[in-house]
Amino acid sequence: MAATETLTAERILEATEEVLRRHGPAKATVVDVARALGVSHGSVYRHFRTKAALREAVTKRWLDRTSEALAGIVADTSRDPERRLRDWLAALFEAKRHKAGDDPELFATYVVLTGEQGRAVAEHLDDLTGQLTRIIEDGVAAGVFSSDDPAATARAVFHTTGRFHDPQYAPEWKDPRTDADFAAVVDLVLRGLRA
Amino acid sequence: MAATETLTAERILEATEEVLRRHGPAKATVVDVARALGVSHGSVYRHFRTKAALREAVTKRWLDRTSEALAGIVADTSRDPERRLRDWLAALFEAKRHKAGDDPELFATYVVLTGEQGRAVAEHLDDLTGQLTRIIEDGVAAGVFSSDDPAATARAVFHTTGRFHDPQYAPEWKDPRTDADFAAVVDLVLRGLRA
User: Fold this and answer.
1) By Cβ atoms counted within 10 A, which residue in A183, B10, B98, B188 is the most buried?
2) Residues of chain B where predicted confidence (pLDDT) is lower than 50
3) What pLDDT, on the 0 to 100 scale, is given for residue A30?
4) Which candidate in B161, B188, B191 is best for mutational testing of the A interface (most A CBs within 10 A)?
5) Residue A161 to residue B156, Cβ atoms within 8 A
6) What is the rounded distance in angstroms from the CA atom of residue B110 to the CA atom of residue B117?
7) How high is the pLDDT of residue A49?
8) According to DSSP H, which parts of chain A are helical?
9) How do the domains of chain B map onto residue ranges?
10) Which pLDDT belongs to residue A118?
């Protein structure tokens, strides 16, 4: 990579992802990342003080890609709350299924990393259930959903649909029945939410 | 063990479970099982033709213990369908949580075995969703549940509650929020089923 380019955190994270893809999470080192960027490992440490901090940041970046894509659906009030909730759940499932199917090695790498990064995962789950909470609140305000506690309901919706976003189930997503199973679960949950 | 006792399949399976608990699924052999029973390995092979058949039978027995306990709830028509469904889901969760918490080594052993025994697991899941189907059919007949296809609805109910019976989630079952999470999911699902 051209040494004249400024070494940004984002450039380091891109290189880290590529190194993780190539070497796997057990073997990837900060020296590999520095070598891929044509810089010293000291330069990498100026942005990420430890290898653990770098692994956490790259995991967070991967998780945030999903939540950022979904935030647009939450904000799109031109769609009614039921439509937004269906689209949000479908988009979450599609995002996960694509990550798992398009690049299985990178997906497996991130499954290992998320297993290590409890705090980054907890923040990600809070972010996603926070998005769901906003859709449910809008539905309650519009009189189409019923919930005494939208945050608790959001958590329940997230848990009921876990089969279609929890990476543990990735092998099941190739099952030909999966799309019908997903539709049946979403219909049941939406019926449960209606006022 | 007294050699005068008749060597039944059930006695072999009991001994196999004990051997698995002691040696773990990777190391347990048919010779260990025969030794624990004080018989020749030929005697064991007369009941189970291969080591694989023995492992499948012991896995099936472990899975069947759960389904047999639940069958009583399905048959108890003195309870209305909603009550039966709530009790069934709670009993399934309790059974799994007990298996995981009371004897973690044996539970870990069976998690390995179920990973190998795809057919036994598929039959077990069919058995459980079949039980759910009967409760839902009774609810539809009584006019309290709504479903065009009770078998598909049963599958959806099973999937929405996976967090509370799929052994993959066993580590989460110690989380202090788990009981509240389970109650919220069951309430949401029951609302979705109501006619």
Assistant:
1) B188
2) 1-2
3) 94
4) B188
5) no
6) 10
7) 94
8) 9-23, 30-37, 41-47, 51-75, 81-102, 104-116, 118-141, 150-160, 178-193
9) 9-47, 56-193
10) 87
**Residue whose pair of structure tokens reads 């077990």 in the numeric block:** B124
Cα distances (angstroms) measured from residue A22 to each of A15, A27, A34, A102, A116: 11, 9, 14, 16, 19
What is the reported pLDDT for B4?
54
pLDDT at A72 over 60: yes
As its CATH architecture, domain B9-47 has Orthogonal Bundle (1.10)
Q: Which residues of B touch A188 (CB under 8 A)?
A: 153, 156-157, 160, 189, 192-193
Q: How many contacts (CB atoms, under 8 Å) link A and B?
A: 66
List the one residue out of B131, B114, B127 whose CA is nearest residue B58: B114
Question: How close A15 gets to chain B, by Cα (Å)?
Answer: 33
With beta carbons under 8 A apart, name residues in chain B contacting A159.
163, 181, 184-185
For residue range A89-145, list pLDDT tens digits in order.
999 999 999 999 988 888 989 989 998 888 999 999 999 999 999 999 999 999 999
Residue ranges of chain A whose CB lies within 8 Å of a chain B CB: 152-153, 155-157, 159-163, 168, 180-181, 184-185, 187-193
**Subunit contact A188:B156, Cβ cutoff 8 A:** yes
The yes or no reply on domain B56-193 and CATH 1.50.10.20 is no
User: The CATH number of A57-193 is which of 1.10.357.10, 2.60.120.10, 3.40.630.10, 1.10.357.140?
Assistant: 1.10.357.10
